[in-house]
Amino acid sequence: MAKADSTPRTPTRKRAEGGSASTGQVQSLTRGLVLLERIAEAPAGIMLTDLSMQVGLPNSTTHRLLTTMQQMGFVQQTGDLGLWSIGVRAFTVGSGFLGSRDLSTIAMPVLRRTMEAAGETSNLVVFDTDAWQSVVVGQVQCRELMRMLAPIGGRLPLHASGAGKAFLAAQDAEHLNRILQKTGLPHYTEHTITTPALLKEQLLRVQQQGFAFDDGEHALGLRCVASCIYDESGQAFAAISVSGPKSRIPDERITHLGSLVMQAASEITQHYGGKPRKSS
Length: 280
What we know:
This protein has 280 residues and is an alpha+beta fold. The chain is 48% helix and 18% strand. It contains 9 helices and 8 strands. The protein has helices at residues 10-40, 48-55, 59-71, 88-100, 103-118, 162-169, 173-183, 196-209, 254-272, and strands spanning 75-78, 83-86, 121-128, 133-140, 155-157, 212-215, 222-230, 236-245. Residues 1-24 are annotated as: Disordered. Keywords: DNA-binding, Transcription, Transcription regulation. Residues 89-274 form the IclR-ED domain.
């Protein structure tokens, strides 16, 4: 009877070597992407030693990865200090995302979850900076028989709507004054704010708490809580809101609903590739 050959076969060894090489390539890719993130967080550029320290890699390894990305145009080294910064190729790749994103597609799952959590209708609103109005572009209706809805395409004044006041609160003082000069503060209900001083006082509160509140200021009996969505430059361009009758949104629910819309707006901002407004 022939003796069994106990010598390991070469293909098995090759597969193991291939797996090890693959693991190393994935690790290098991960490290390279982390380096890109750290460089992007330093718009003025960053030194190799500082970068290595931040990511926990030896200078030699960091330099090897940077050199590879530099050859492909994803990073560049500039100035007398040899600071590393983002390259044109990284911008080109990132721009592909900006061109393909769709606000409604990104926001709709968040709107549904927000409606379920709040038990009230959730709305997606964008800001028309030509007419200076809020425009409803998406909505998930609640299951209650009594609903107070703004139709898709419906327009609301900035100073008398939750989303509109969230937008106004995100503007600097000079821009805010220009908007108010163009729009004025028309009266809609007994709760409408019609004096600039009182509106600015309320907008300051919006900035501090992170969400805006409309207490029947455009339609009596309707309450709305809203928070802004920001683009990649940190500018407010949309908002998510929750609206319903005053009987179901008493004062004690406002803070909770505010927390829900703030969380939802932050999630949409992140998925859209935006960044929150910097605190003043």
